[in-house]
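FIELD: query
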Amino acid sequence: NNDNFGAIDDFRKLHKSSGDSTYSSCLLLGKALILTKQVNSSKRYFNFIISHNADDDMDSETLAEAYYSRGWVNYTNKNKSLACQDWSKASELGFEKAFNFIKQYCN
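FIELD: result
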């Protein structure tokens, strides 16, 4: 869908210009890449968020959703073990959807 590709361009521009608020733009960009079937490309944005989890300006909801989304990427790439680890971390951080995925895919 052309709207999704346009969104990706917009998010990339936002990501480059956003300074300290890069975490939410990275999350949105990663999710947009998933929507356009660029699943493997999305993982680097989730990894960026997770690798900066000690930053004071990151909220736990963004971090939890990054773990959840990276878990989905791992599961799509047939790495169930890593997916379950990510969903577990997302669940610990309060992301409820992750708990449902753990019940469905990790037992």
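FIELD: remark
The mean pLDDT is 84.
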